[in-house]
Each structure stands twice: as structure tokens, then as C-alpha cells.
Specification:
The chain is an alpha/beta fold. It has 2 domains: 159 residues, Rossmann fold, CATH 3.40.50; 115 residues, Orthogonal Bundle (N-(1-d-carboxylethyl)-l-norvaline Dehydrogenase, domain 2), CATH 1.10.1040. The chain contains 12 helices and 8 strands.
């Protein structure tokens, strides 16, 4: 049976976190965050989505029934360490759901931190776009007690239970992202190579004249920098299973290359670049005109 939830903490209100907060707020929950040190754009998203700003992490942890970690992968463990320390200082014990794109082994480390502080931990993996009132992403969860996270399904999120074990939801996120962001990296590399050799049109002609993957490439640059650590987490997931990590270490390299271009500085509030612009920027990084 799902728990009763009235107050939700989200760190941080980026594209995904603000979308989640907006839906939960519209469906009757109080949504809290801490904006100290966050960018002007993040602050704007938080205001637009109905977030309540708290002055510090201790106040945030003490104010909510469930804490949702929604960050770039590299920030997941440091935030969990900070929240676990806050729980010990304050005595507050909200349920903690890690919703980040991280490997199951990383999630298990965070589980140890949070349960060691006396709180319930939930493994969660988000698949798809930020949620909207009319639909959006799917929120998979796993763990021995996921009732607090399941309750969010009564407030607009599409919550799906994967299983009873920590690592299952994050594992599903990893293998799914490998099929989407991983293949986008592959298409980006091969189209950049074709462009550099003057063979783009010939290649597209060999594919029947319709390059259906163009949209995945043009929507990628503003996400490239945060996809680098995600590809590294996928590589770690596969390495932990005895599979080669090198395919997705290579995907991380491609996103690192894209992250070196000015296109990676764009935000979700700006138009995506064209395929021509993306390939021009990448071939320029290779030293081609």
C-alpha cells in the first residue's frame, strides 16, 4: 500500500526536476528545494513550477516526507553523503529516492549511506522526457519498501514497480539509455566521419535517402556534457557484469567532443541547431574546414 505524502523535496529543479515538481505541485503536493548556489535559470524554473525555496539543506531535509535526488550523475553520491549527514544532524528521516542515471553499484553505495542514517532508500530510474500534466516520463522504482515513491503515482507521475531489489530500477535505466543515448553517440560519430570525408549525402543515399536519426543528433548538444558521466555509468554497469565497458567509454568520448563546442552552451529554451550546424561544429573540432 502506498504511503501518504504531502511534502516532497527535489534537488535540483533542472529540466527534469522542475517538470516533476510542476506536476506534483499541480496535483496538490507541496514541493521544496534549496536554491543556494544554483543558476538563474534553475531559479526561474523553480519559481515557474511552484517550488518553495529553503535556506539550507538541513531545513529542506526536515521539511519533507520524501526527498528526490534528480541531478547529473556526478553529483548523485556527494548529495547522498550530504543528505545522510543532514539526517544525522537533524534527526529527520524522509524517504530518499535516487532518480539519477547511475550504475547499480553506485546506487547500492548510496543505499548504504541513506539506510545507515536511518531512512528508507528507494532506487528509481527515469525513462523518457520530463513529465507534463498530460504525460511524459516513466518513473521505475525498486527496493524493499517503495511505498513512499509509489504514492507519487497518485499525484501525476507515471510510477512503475520493477522489483524488490536495490539496483533493478537503475539497471533498467542503464540498459535503456544504452539503446537511446548510446546509439545517438554512434550516429553522431559516423555522421561526423562521413561529413569529414565529404560523404554525408552519399551515405544518406545508401540509407534510402531518409536519415531518420537526425532529430536525435540535433537535440543532443545541449545535453552532451551531462551525458558524458551517464555513458561512464553505463560502461561501469556493463563492466560490473563482466562485459566490455569500452563501447560506452567511446560514447562518453563523443559527448565530451560535443561538449567542447559552443552548441553545448545552449539551453532547452533555445531552438535546437540544425544537423548542418552540429556536423560543422564537430568537424571543425577535428581540424576540418
Amino acid at each position: 500500500m502506498a504511503a501518504t505524502i504531502g511534502k516532497v523535496g527535489i534537488m535540483s529543479p533542472g529540466d527534469m526536476g522542475s517538470g516533476m515538481g510542476n506536476v506534483l505541485h499541480a496535483k496538490g503536493l507541496e514541493v521544496y528545494t534549496c536554491l543556494a548556489g544554483r543558476s538563474d535559470l534553475t531559479r526561474l524554473r523553480a519559481r515557474e513550477s511552484g517550488f518553495i525555496d529553503t535556506p539550507d539543506l538541513d531545513t529542506l531535509v526536515s521539511s519533507v516526507d520524501i526527498f528526490l535526488s534528480v541531478l547529473v550523475p556526478s553529483e548523485a553520491l556527494p548529495l547522498a553523503e550530504a543528505v545522510a549527514a543532514s539526517m544525522k544532524r537533524t534527526g529527520a528521516r524522509p524517504a530518499y529516492a535516487d532518480c539519477n542515471a547511475i550504475a547499480p553499484r553506485t546506487v547500492q553505495t548510496i543505499d548504504t549511506l541513506i539506510t545507515g542514517a536511518g531512512a528508507m532508500f528507494i532506487d528509481a530510474g527515469i525513462i523518457g522526457s520530463p513529465p507534463r500534466l498530460d504525460g511524459g516520463g516513466r518513473f521505475h522504482c525498486s527496493g524493499p519498501d517503495i511505498s513512499a515513491f509509489e504514492a507519487l503515482g497518485q499525484h501525476g507521475l507515471d510510477v512503475r514497480v520493477v522489483g524488490p531489489d536495490i539496483g533493478q530500477a537503475s539497471g533498467l535505466k542503464m540498459v535503456y539509455a544504452a539503446t537511446t543515448k548510446g546509439t545517438t553517440a554512434l550516429w553522431t560519430e559516423l555522421m561526423t566521419a562521413a561529413e569529414a570525408m565529404g560523404l554525408r549525402e552519399a551515405l544518406i543515399a545508401e540509407m534510402g535517402g531518409n536519415f531518420r536519426q537526425a532529430n536525435s543528433i540535433t537535440g543532443m548538444p545541449r545535453r552532451a556534457r551531462r551525458w558524458v558521466p551517464e555513458m561512464e555509468e553505463i560502461a561501469a554497469t556493463f563492466a560490473g557484469l563482466g562485459l566490455t565497458p569500452r563501447i560506452f567509454e567511446g560514447a562518453a568520448d563523443i559527448y565530451r567532443l560535443v561538449g567542447e563546442t559552443a552548441l553545448a552552451d545552449q539551453t532547452s529554451r533555445e531552438p535546437d541547431p540544425s544537423l548542418d550546424q552540429v556536423l560543422e561544429a564537430l568537424t571543425a573540432r577535428l581540424g576540418h574546414e
